[in-house]
Amino acid sequence: MNKFLLLLFISIISFLKISQANEIFIESKELIITNNPLTTTFIGDVHAFDEEIKLWSDKILIIYTETDNQIDAIKSYGNTKLIRENQEILSDSMTYFVIDKKIYAVGNITLTQDGNVMKGNELTVDLVKSTSIMKSDNINKVSVKINNNE
Amino acid sequence: MISSNKKILIDFLILFLFFFGLKSNAEEIQNSIEIKNPIFTTKSIDGSPYEIKAEKGLQRENYLDLFVIEAKLKSNEDIWIYLNADKGTFNQLSGEILLESNIEIYTEAGEKIFAELANVNTNNKIITLKTNVKYQDTNIFISADESIINNEFSNIKYYGNVKSKIIKK
Asked: What average pLDDT does the segment B90-97 reach?
Protein backbone atom coordinates (compact mmCIF):
# COMPACT_ATOMS: atom_id res chain seq x y z
CA MET A 1 0.00 0.00 0.00
CA ASN A 2 2.82 2.35 0.99
CA LYS A 3 4.70 1.49 -2.23
CA PHE A 4 1.59 2.26 -4.23
CA LEU A 5 1.20 5.65 -2.53
CA LEU A 6 4.90 6.42 -3.12
CA LEU A 7 4.57 5.52 -6.82
CA LEU A 8 1.42 7.64 -7.09
CA PHE A 9 3.21 10.57 -5.41
CA ILE A 10 6.22 10.27 -7.77
CA SER A 11 3.87 10.07 -10.78
CA ILE A 12 2.02 13.22 -9.70
CA ILE A 13 5.29 15.12 -9.14
CA SER A 14 6.61 14.00 -12.55
CA PHE A 15 3.36 15.01 -14.22
CA LEU A 16 3.43 18.44 -12.55
CA LYS A 17 7.06 18.95 -13.64
CA ILE A 18 6.24 17.99 -17.27
CA SER A 19 3.17 20.27 -17.22
CA GLN A 20 5.20 23.20 -15.90
CA ALA A 21 8.00 22.62 -18.45
CA ASN A 22 5.41 22.92 -21.17
CA GLU A 23 4.16 26.34 -20.06
CA ILE A 24 5.37 29.91 -20.09
CA PHE A 25 4.03 32.54 -17.71
CA ILE A 26 3.87 36.20 -18.77
CA GLU A 27 2.74 39.22 -16.75
CA SER A 28 2.32 42.80 -18.01
CA LYS A 29 0.26 45.97 -17.82
CA GLU A 30 -1.42 45.43 -21.18
CA LEU A 31 -1.96 42.63 -23.66
CA ILE A 32 -3.21 42.77 -27.25
CA ILE A 33 -4.21 39.62 -29.11
CA THR A 34 -5.13 39.64 -32.80
CA ASN A 35 -6.25 36.80 -35.04
CA ASN A 36 -5.43 36.41 -38.75
CA PRO A 37 -2.48 36.54 -38.30
CA LEU A 38 -2.28 35.41 -34.68
CA THR A 39 -0.19 37.88 -32.64
CA THR A 40 0.17 38.25 -28.90
CA THR A 41 1.81 41.45 -27.64
CA PHE A 42 2.50 42.20 -23.99
CA ILE A 43 3.20 45.87 -23.19
CA GLY A 44 4.51 47.60 -20.07
CA ASP A 45 6.68 46.08 -17.33
CA VAL A 46 6.61 42.67 -18.96
CA HIS A 47 7.95 39.68 -17.03
CA ALA A 48 8.09 36.25 -18.66
CA PHE A 49 9.38 33.04 -17.15
CA ASP A 50 9.52 29.33 -17.81
CA GLU A 51 11.72 26.48 -16.60
CA GLU A 52 14.72 27.81 -18.62
CA ILE A 53 14.67 31.59 -18.38
CA LYS A 54 13.43 34.71 -16.59
CA LEU A 55 12.91 37.68 -18.90
CA TRP A 56 12.01 41.33 -18.27
CA SER A 57 11.31 43.93 -20.95
CA ASP A 58 9.20 46.92 -22.02
CA LYS A 59 7.42 44.93 -24.70
CA ILE A 60 7.22 41.24 -25.62
CA LEU A 61 5.82 39.74 -28.82
CA ILE A 62 4.97 36.05 -29.14
CA ILE A 63 5.65 34.51 -32.54
CA TYR A 64 3.71 31.33 -33.39
CA THR A 65 4.45 28.58 -35.89
CA GLU A 66 2.31 28.90 -39.01
CA THR A 67 1.24 25.27 -39.10
CA ASP A 68 0.03 24.47 -35.58
CA ASN A 69 0.17 27.75 -33.60
CA GLN A 70 2.95 26.60 -31.25
CA ILE A 71 5.13 29.26 -29.63
CA ASP A 72 8.10 29.57 -31.97
CA ALA A 73 9.85 32.60 -30.47
CA ILE A 74 9.49 35.36 -27.92
CA LYS A 75 10.77 38.76 -29.04
CA SER A 76 11.47 41.50 -26.51
CA TYR A 77 11.91 45.19 -27.22
CA GLY A 78 13.44 47.79 -24.91
CA ASN A 79 15.29 47.44 -21.58
CA THR A 80 15.58 43.69 -21.84
CA LYS A 81 17.05 41.60 -19.05
CA LEU A 82 17.33 37.83 -19.09
CA ILE A 83 18.48 35.54 -16.31
CA ARG A 84 19.26 31.86 -16.78
CA GLU A 85 21.42 29.57 -14.68
CA ASN A 86 24.61 31.59 -13.98
CA GLN A 87 24.10 34.16 -16.76
CA GLU A 88 22.53 37.60 -16.78
CA ILE A 89 22.08 39.34 -20.13
CA LEU A 90 21.14 42.99 -20.58
CA SER A 91 20.35 44.27 -24.10
CA ASP A 92 18.17 46.57 -26.18
CA SER A 93 16.24 43.71 -27.75
CA MET A 94 16.28 39.95 -27.63
CA THR A 95 14.70 36.90 -29.24
CA TYR A 96 14.20 33.67 -27.32
CA PHE A 97 13.73 30.83 -29.81
CA VAL A 98 11.58 28.50 -27.73
CA ILE A 99 11.62 25.49 -30.09
CA ASP A 100 15.30 25.82 -31.09
CA LYS A 101 16.31 26.70 -27.50
CA LYS A 102 18.50 29.62 -28.54
CA ILE A 103 18.75 33.27 -27.50
CA TYR A 104 19.75 36.07 -29.84
CA ALA A 105 20.34 39.53 -28.35
CA VAL A 106 21.15 42.80 -30.14
CA GLY A 107 22.32 46.23 -28.97
CA ASN A 108 24.26 47.38 -25.91
CA ILE A 109 24.75 43.90 -24.54
CA THR A 110 26.18 43.21 -21.12
CA LEU A 111 26.67 39.55 -20.33
CA THR A 112 27.55 38.72 -16.74
CA GLN A 113 28.62 35.18 -15.95
CA ASP A 114 30.25 34.00 -12.72
CA GLY A 115 31.30 37.57 -11.95
CA ASN A 116 32.90 38.07 -15.39
CA VAL A 117 31.46 40.87 -17.52
CA MET A 118 31.44 40.94 -21.35
CA LYS A 119 30.15 43.82 -23.44
CA GLY A 120 29.26 43.73 -27.14
CA ASN A 121 26.62 44.32 -29.78
CA GLU A 122 25.41 40.87 -30.76
CA LEU A 123 25.05 37.73 -28.67
CA THR A 124 23.96 34.20 -29.51
CA VAL A 125 23.37 31.69 -26.71
CA ASP A 126 22.72 28.01 -27.39
CA LEU A 127 20.82 26.69 -24.38
CA VAL A 128 21.32 23.05 -25.38
CA LYS A 129 25.08 23.22 -26.06
CA SER A 130 25.61 25.86 -23.34
CA THR A 131 27.67 28.05 -25.67
CA SER A 132 27.64 31.84 -25.95
CA ILE A 133 29.08 33.84 -28.85
CA MET A 134 29.51 37.58 -28.45
CA LYS A 135 30.17 39.84 -31.46
CA SER A 136 30.66 43.54 -31.84
CA ASP A 137 30.60 46.15 -34.59
CA ASN A 138 33.71 47.56 -36.24
CA ILE A 139 33.93 50.64 -34.00
CA ASN A 140 33.44 49.02 -30.60
CA LYS A 141 35.26 45.81 -29.92
CA VAL A 142 34.04 43.20 -27.50
CA SER A 143 35.26 44.08 -24.03
CA VAL A 144 35.77 41.53 -21.27
CA LYS A 145 36.31 42.06 -17.56
CA ILE A 146 37.35 38.88 -15.83
CA ASN A 147 36.78 38.52 -12.14
CA ASN A 148 39.63 36.42 -10.70
CA ASN A 149 38.41 36.56 -7.11
CA GLU A 150 37.61 32.93 -6.40
CA MET B 1 -34.26 79.33 18.56
CA ILE B 2 -32.62 79.65 15.16
CA SER B 3 -30.96 76.29 15.50
CA SER B 4 -34.27 74.69 16.55
CA ASN B 5 -36.00 76.11 13.44
CA LYS B 6 -33.16 74.87 11.31
CA LYS B 7 -33.51 71.40 12.82
CA ILE B 8 -37.25 71.35 12.09
CA LEU B 9 -36.59 72.53 8.56
CA ILE B 10 -33.99 69.81 8.02
CA ASP B 11 -36.35 67.19 9.49
CA PHE B 12 -39.09 68.32 7.07
CA LEU B 13 -36.67 68.23 4.21
CA ILE B 14 -35.59 64.67 5.09
CA LEU B 15 -39.24 63.57 5.41
CA PHE B 16 -40.08 65.22 2.09
CA LEU B 17 -37.18 63.55 0.32
CA PHE B 18 -38.04 60.20 1.91
CA PHE B 19 -41.68 60.29 0.77
CA PHE B 20 -40.75 61.69 -2.63
CA GLY B 21 -38.30 58.82 -3.04
CA LEU B 22 -40.91 56.25 -2.04
CA LYS B 23 -43.41 57.79 -4.45
CA SER B 24 -40.89 57.70 -7.31
CA ASN B 25 -40.06 54.07 -6.61
CA ALA B 26 -43.72 53.15 -6.44
CA GLU B 27 -44.35 54.83 -9.77
CA GLU B 28 -41.38 53.08 -11.27
CA ILE B 29 -42.63 49.70 -10.09
CA GLN B 30 -46.14 50.52 -11.28
CA ASN B 31 -44.81 51.57 -14.69
CA SER B 32 -42.73 48.47 -15.21
CA ILE B 33 -44.21 45.39 -16.81
CA GLU B 34 -43.04 41.95 -15.80
CA ILE B 35 -42.44 39.52 -18.64
CA LYS B 36 -41.85 35.82 -18.07
CA ASN B 37 -39.28 34.10 -20.30
CA PRO B 38 -38.81 37.03 -22.70
CA ILE B 39 -37.10 36.28 -26.01
CA PHE B 40 -35.86 39.00 -28.37
CA THR B 41 -34.79 37.92 -31.81
CA THR B 42 -33.67 40.80 -33.93
CA LYS B 43 -30.89 42.11 -36.15
CA SER B 44 -28.07 44.58 -35.56
CA ILE B 45 -27.38 47.54 -37.88
CA ASP B 46 -25.22 45.38 -40.17
CA GLY B 47 -28.00 42.79 -40.43
CA SER B 48 -26.43 40.03 -38.35
CA PRO B 49 -28.90 38.32 -36.05
CA TYR B 50 -28.86 38.30 -32.28
CA GLU B 51 -31.11 36.73 -29.69
CA ILE B 52 -31.64 37.56 -26.03
CA LYS B 53 -33.46 35.18 -23.72
CA ALA B 54 -34.10 35.46 -19.98
CA GLU B 55 -36.08 33.79 -17.22
CA LYS B 56 -37.72 37.10 -16.29
CA GLY B 57 -37.85 40.62 -17.67
CA LEU B 58 -39.06 43.96 -16.28
CA GLN B 59 -39.93 46.49 -18.98
CA ARG B 60 -39.30 50.17 -18.06
CA GLU B 61 -39.91 52.38 -21.08
CA ASN B 62 -37.04 51.49 -23.46
CA TYR B 63 -35.11 49.52 -20.88
CA LEU B 64 -35.59 45.90 -20.08
CA ASP B 65 -34.17 44.52 -16.85
CA LEU B 66 -33.39 40.88 -17.41
CA PHE B 67 -32.68 38.05 -15.01
CA VAL B 68 -30.81 34.82 -15.83
CA ILE B 69 -29.82 35.86 -19.33
CA GLU B 70 -28.78 33.79 -22.31
CA ALA B 71 -27.89 35.80 -25.38
CA LYS B 72 -26.17 35.07 -28.65
CA LEU B 73 -24.77 37.20 -31.48
CA LYS B 74 -23.76 36.01 -34.91
CA SER B 75 -20.40 37.24 -36.15
CA ASN B 76 -19.70 38.27 -39.73
CA GLU B 77 -17.79 35.02 -40.09
CA ASP B 78 -20.98 33.10 -39.17
CA ILE B 79 -19.67 32.13 -35.73
CA TRP B 80 -22.11 32.39 -32.82
CA ILE B 81 -20.92 34.27 -29.74
CA TYR B 82 -22.87 33.20 -26.63
CA LEU B 83 -23.35 35.31 -23.51
CA ASN B 84 -24.72 34.21 -20.14
CA ALA B 85 -25.20 36.34 -17.02
CA ASP B 86 -27.20 36.45 -13.81
CA LYS B 87 -28.78 39.81 -14.64
CA GLY B 88 -28.58 42.73 -17.02
CA THR B 89 -30.31 45.64 -18.69
CA PHE B 90 -31.12 45.76 -22.39
CA ASN B 91 -31.48 49.22 -23.93
CA GLN B 92 -33.80 48.58 -26.85
CA LEU B 93 -33.06 51.95 -28.50
CA SER B 94 -29.25 51.77 -28.49
CA GLY B 95 -28.99 47.99 -28.68
CA GLU B 96 -26.66 47.97 -25.67
CA ILE B 97 -26.75 45.27 -23.03
CA LEU B 98 -25.26 45.83 -19.58
CA LEU B 99 -24.53 42.52 -17.92
CA GLU B 100 -23.80 41.90 -14.24
CA SER B 101 -22.62 38.96 -12.18
CA ASN B 102 -21.31 35.58 -13.35
CA ILE B 103 -20.82 36.65 -16.94
CA GLU B 104 -19.68 33.94 -19.30
CA ILE B 105 -18.97 34.62 -22.96
CA TYR B 106 -17.97 31.81 -25.26
CA THR B 107 -17.68 31.02 -28.94
CA GLU B 108 -18.11 27.94 -31.07
CA ALA B 109 -14.31 28.10 -31.54
CA GLY B 110 -13.77 27.09 -27.89
CA GLU B 111 -12.89 30.53 -26.48
CA LYS B 112 -14.31 31.40 -23.04
CA ILE B 113 -14.31 34.68 -21.12
CA PHE B 114 -15.58 35.30 -17.61
CA ALA B 115 -16.16 38.65 -15.86
CA GLU B 116 -18.31 40.39 -13.28
CA LEU B 117 -19.43 43.34 -15.45
CA ALA B 118 -19.88 43.68 -19.20
CA ASN B 119 -21.20 46.11 -21.76
CA VAL B 120 -22.23 44.58 -25.06
CA ASN B 121 -22.90 46.85 -28.02
CA THR B 122 -24.88 44.71 -30.45
CA ASN B 123 -24.42 47.21 -33.30
CA ASN B 124 -20.64 47.61 -33.41
CA LYS B 125 -20.14 44.30 -31.56
CA ILE B 126 -17.70 45.76 -29.05
CA ILE B 127 -17.76 43.93 -25.72
CA THR B 128 -16.21 45.69 -22.71
CA LEU B 129 -15.54 43.50 -19.70
CA LYS B 130 -14.65 44.69 -16.22
CA THR B 131 -13.71 43.18 -12.86
CA ASN B 132 -12.05 39.81 -12.52
CA VAL B 133 -11.74 39.17 -16.25
CA LYS B 134 -10.58 35.67 -17.21
CA TYR B 135 -10.02 34.24 -20.67
CA GLN B 136 -9.20 30.71 -21.66
CA ASP B 137 -8.88 28.58 -24.76
CA THR B 138 -6.91 25.42 -25.42
CA ASN B 139 -3.51 27.20 -25.45
CA ILE B 140 -3.74 30.22 -23.19
CA PHE B 141 -5.17 31.35 -19.87
CA ILE B 142 -5.34 35.11 -19.13
CA SER B 143 -6.55 37.13 -16.17
CA ALA B 144 -6.83 40.95 -16.14
CA ASP B 145 -8.72 43.88 -14.65
CA GLU B 146 -10.41 44.91 -17.91
CA SER B 147 -10.83 43.68 -21.47
CA ILE B 148 -12.19 45.05 -24.74
CA ILE B 149 -13.23 42.64 -27.46
CA ASN B 150 -13.37 44.16 -30.95
CA ASN B 151 -14.27 42.79 -34.35
CA GLU B 152 -15.90 39.68 -33.01
CA PHE B 153 -12.96 38.22 -31.12
CA SER B 154 -10.42 39.07 -33.85
CA ASN B 155 -8.87 41.74 -31.59
CA ILE B 156 -8.88 41.42 -27.80
CA LYS B 157 -7.16 43.91 -25.49
CA TYR B 158 -6.52 43.33 -21.80
CA TYR B 159 -5.65 46.07 -19.33
CA GLY B 160 -4.35 46.15 -15.78
CA ASN B 161 -2.55 43.42 -13.91
CA VAL B 162 -2.40 41.07 -16.89
CA LYS B 163 -1.28 37.53 -16.04
CA SER B 164 -1.08 34.75 -18.58
CA LYS B 165 -0.11 31.13 -18.86
CA ILE B 166 0.65 29.92 -22.39
CA ILE B 167 1.06 26.31 -23.45
CA LYS B 168 4.25 26.12 -25.52
CA LYS B 169 3.32 23.01 -27.56
From this structure: 87
